[in-house]
Each structure stands twice: as C-alpha cells, then as structure tokens.
Amino acid sequence: MRYAFVAICLAVFFPLSAAAQGHTQRAGPSVRGSQGSVQTCGYIDAKGKIALDLPYAAAEPFHEGLAVVTDYSAGTDWGGRNELRGYIDKAGKVVIKPQYQRAAGFSEGLAAVSKQQDKWGFINKSGNMVIKPRYHQAGPFRAGYARVCVERYPDRWGYIDKTGKIRIKPKYINAGDFSCGLAPVATGNLVKPMWGYIDRAGKIAIKPQYDHAAGFLDGLAFVAKRIGNNNFSYRCIDTSGKTVIKNVTPIGEGFSEGLALVWSNGGRGFINKKGIEVITCAPTSEMVPEGPFRNGLARVSIGQRWSYMDKAGNLVVGPNQWVGASDFSEGLAAFARTSTRRGTYGIIDRMGKLVTNKRYDAVGVMSNGLIPVRIGDEETGKWGFADKQGKLVIQPQFDMVGRYTEGLIPVGFGDEQSAKWGYIDGSGRTVVEPRYRWAAGFSEGLARVETHEGAGYIDGTGKMVIPADLYMANDFSEGLAWATDLDTMEAYCIDRSGNEVFRTKNELCGSFSDGLASVLVKHTNYGYFDKKGSVVIAPQFLRAEPFRGGLAAVSVGKSIQQDERWGYIDTTGKFVVQPKFYLAGAFSEGLAPVMVSVNGNLENGGQWGFIDTSGNIVVQPKFSLAGGFYDGLAFAVTGDPVNPRYGYIDKTGKMVIEEQFDGAGDFSQGVAGVGWKLGKEQQ
Questions:
Q1: 297-325 CB burial, b ≥16 within 10 A, e <16
Q2: Does residue 627 contact residue 594 with C-beta atoms inside 8 Å?
Q3: d(CA 548, CA 529)
Q4: Exposed (0-12), middle (13-18) or buried (19+): which is 51, by Cβ within 10 Å?
Q5: Theoretical Cys-Cys bridge with 518: which of 284, 510, 553, 607, CB 3.0 to 4.6 Å?
Q6: What is the pLDDT of residues 623-661, one digit of tens each?
Q7: Which regions of 199-284 does DSSP assign to beta strands (E)?
Q8: How far apart, in whole angstroms, are the C-alpha atoms of residue 188 and residue 275?
Q9: Residue 534 phi/psi, 5° resolution?
Q10: DSSP codes joined into one string, 312-331
C-alpha cells in the first residue's frame, strides 16, 4: 500500500464530494508498525521556516486552529491497521488523541469523524460526539448546513443543521457544500447525473442542466456540459446562472483569493474573475502550479521538489526536498519528507537474527519463497523481490507490486493516473504484458483487472474470460465473486463463467468462506447468506467478519460507540464464544487476538491477549498491541503503543524475540520483515 503522507486533494476539475471513493489502492506492500518512523511531517510558515516538526506520518491543513494528523503507531483500528487520526493545535499539542479511522477538518466548530468503516458523525473541539454517527458520508458545515449521505447504492444526499436535524430531504445522488447561499446538487442517476443548484430552503435556484458543477467560490462557479463521449465544454457562471467566463478549463476547485488555476495552451496558469490570464506557466516551464492561492501563496512543483509562488509569479518559498506539501491555511502549510528521518528495513528469521545485512527502504510479506522489497523512497523508489536469504532475485524495477498468488505477480509501471499493470512469474519473466489500469492477484485461476471500459477477469495467459464491463468486482472465493451492475448499482453474484447466480439490493457483501458471506441489510445490521442468496443467519450484528475455520468474529450491542462487544459464532449463527471483548481478530493457527479493558475502561487503551476456539484465554491480556500468529509467532508490544517497540511472542505468550523494532510484519515461510528508525538498526 502506498500512503499519502500529506493530505493534498488536488483533483483535475471539481472535487465535489466524497461520494466517488476508489475501490483500488496502489499496491506497494509495507511492514506493519510505526510507519511514521519512515516518513515525518510538519508545518512551515509563509517564509518557509519550519514552525512545527512532528513525528506523525501525515498532516493536513489547519482549520479553525486545529489540524488532523495521522499516527500509524497510535494503536490498531478495528480493521487491523495501525492508522488512527486525531487533532493538534498550532503549538503541536494533541488536543484530541488519535482514535478515528477517518477525520475531516473543523468547520463552524464541528468536524466529521468515523471510528468505523461506513458511519460518520460530528465532534466538537473538545472531542465530544455531538451528532451521532449515522451517515455513510458527510461534508463540512457551511452556513449552518452540512451535506450527508443517508442511503447508499444509489446514494441519497441531503443536508442537516448543527443539531443533526434534516433540513433538506436526502433525495440527490450527489451534492456539494453551500457557498454564497447555493449548493450544487445532482439528480438523475449515477451514470449520467445532471447538476444544478439549490438554495438554503431546498428550492431549485439554477435548474439541473450541467454534467459537472462545482461550488461557488468568490461568487463564481465552474460548470461543464458534455460534448461527445469524452469532451466537455467549460464555463464560469455567477449565482444567477449567467455565464461570466467562456471557454476555460479549470484545475481544482475554482476561484480563491480572486484567481483560479486553469489549463492554458497546454500549460497552466491563473486567471482573474474577468477571465484574463495574469500568471502563465508554459508547457516547457520547469515550474508547475499545483494548487490555488491561499494566504497569498500557491503551491508549485519543480521536478520532484516543492515550492510556493506569490501572485506576481515569483518563487518565495523553497524549492525544498519534500515528498509532499499542502496549500497554506491559517498561515501554515503542511509538508512531508523522507530525507532526515528515514527508516530502514531488514529480514529476520524465527530466532530474531538478521538473515542478511542488506537494508531496504520497505519490505512486504514472504509468499512462495519471495519477499517484496523496495529500494528508494515512496515517490521514486522501485520494488523488486528477494529470497529467504534477503538476496535480490528480481531487481527493483517496478513502481507498484501486488500479491504473489498462483504463480504470478501483478506489477505496475507509472503513477496512478498513467499506470499500466501486467504479470510476471517468480523468475521475473513477463507473462502478461502491462496493459491494464490496475490488476489484482490471482484467485481460483482468475484475476481482476481494470481497463478504461470497466472491470473484468483474465486467466493465467492474459485472456479476458469475463468481459471488462463491470462497474466493480471482487476476487473469486469458493467459486463466486461479487460484481456491481453499472446501470442499477446493485450487487450481484457471478460464477467463474461470468453468469449471474443471484442479485441483492443489500450493500457491503463480504467474500464467501465456509459457504457463507456477510451482508449488511437495510444499512442496519449484518447477517450471512448462502451461495443461493438465502439469508441463513438473520441480520443481528453490528459488524461481522468472514468465517475462518468455521468461526466468525461478530459484534453486538446498541451501537459501536456505546456497548459493542465481540464474540464468535459458528456457521449456524450460534455463539461459540460469547460477546464480551472490546475488539477481536480472526483465528489463525488456532488462536485469536482479543482486547479487554484496563480496570474496566478504555481510556488508556485496552490490553490484548489470545483465546482458543472454545473461548478460553490461553495468553493473558498484557499487550498494548498484538497481531495474529503465523509460523507460530505473533508480533506484540508491551510498552507505550504511541511509540512502540515491537517484538514477537510464541503461543505461550513468552517474548521470544525481544522488543527492539519500530515496525514489524507477520512471519511467513520462516522470515518476517522488520523496521528501524534511522540510526537504531541492529549492528
């Protein structure tokens, strides 16, 4: 996985909402643990001076005096990732500790946050939840209203006030924030939405007529109409719907401080509100504008370096060797770097001994005798593969790599926009030429791939056996896979020939295991159905994980925030281990990690131990972090989870490899990847 270490969202044209979330990730394997020890971030002032130098892995712009930071070592979230978000003030002090899986900036005193995968609520600056988590997606408050998505597939967006009361009924398939008294909304269907604008009473102010529409900024908004299949005609309108500027193609969200970033004769430039270009950067220019003006400065890139220009087009900050930089907000801009505190990774055996003195910049998990390794940083480094002795057997040459399964490895070249994926075998020989936008590992003889037309499946020769006309698709499991209908957005189950087996209007369908798949029914509770689409375990769980060896971890209670407790059920839905744990992981090698409270509460974090399949505690809860058992060992931390030192325990709970690493991965085939902060490597 590739991590975005500074949250910079510069979309080419109209970042309207969080509705269009991607379902694929850049697949660079990484070691679990303190990813913040590899990359650090901070904030600079308008003179380029470092105002805050922080130990976090990611930082976002300040809003109302607080900023979101991401700490990969703050603890394990419910999905098993060490990735939690909290808030700091301008002195760098933690105001709201990292505890959220997702978190947005503050606006009008409130911020949208989520502690689970699909429900958002709002907190105040004290960290108190003032609007309960009940929304699939949520935007910031603007002029007292926030857009929220209350239904999924198809989406239904409306607007709430600061009490959580619905003020504009959720009936739009997409929606933007209010500004200048108007908000962009989309009607129709997800395939061909029509955008217009409503006022705060919910009445149509500018009728739906555009294929795209951005929010009003500085009193103007960019809109577009489709010309042909893939071309658009852009213009800028005022709040009456009158065209003010014609024939201009925006980059990003629109006007800011009187200027807007646009495409200009193959290059980029800034126009004023009369449409006159005041700053021009030709296609041959080394300096490329990347963001809008904030606090009088705009972000620019110069090769792999970042800088800032003023409104005269002059460089005033940098350039610097940062791997990321944000726009200025409230006098500060976030940056990320690798040059000063970079970590190193190695490979250890089950005795804790390094199998080679070779150091890498990232390592993955061993599979079929190969372990993915990266040489170089996140942005410019290349992935290759090493053997059990840490010796390079496939030279680093790939920008992205996926799971090595069924004899083939998906590999990618280029960035996420221009990526071309193909497949190699274990010797590094190209088996399927790079030609796909994205490619997954093989599962049951087929692999998911994405083309410009959609998602489909190929066999081991690269032959397309299920046409790429699906909106989304999942891996095959027990002969079945989930796909999404492009027209209805309904989920349906297909067999290995691509034939529809059954269809469901439910959402969040899990993969089949032990003949069952989890399903979220009516956005409320999870249950399980069989391969014929029949519900065999009634919807009754807050969350539900796949079956592993006949058992599945599930949670019950009034809500996730109140009294949620985890236990384990069998394939009949009967509890084999009663729900009494605060968190629970999957069984592996006969044991499962579970978390209990410390002195009856979770204020200082819970403690992890392990149970057997009967629910008996076999390793007492005494760890602040713990993973599953693989090759008889599990990584664990006994000390501070914020600055962890990882070691490995055996199935008796004995620490057999002492706590000495800043990052640790699971064992596989007798080896594991581990990481150190610079200067702390084993000698």
A1: bbbbbeeeebbbbeeebeeebbbbebbbb
A2: no
A3: 16
A4: middle
A5: 510
A6: 999 999 999 999 999 987 777 889 999 999 999 999 988
A7: 204-210, 212-213, 221-227, 231-237, 243-246, 250-256, 259-264, 267-271, 277-281
A8: 32
A9: -90, 135
A10: TS-EEEEEE--SEE---BTT
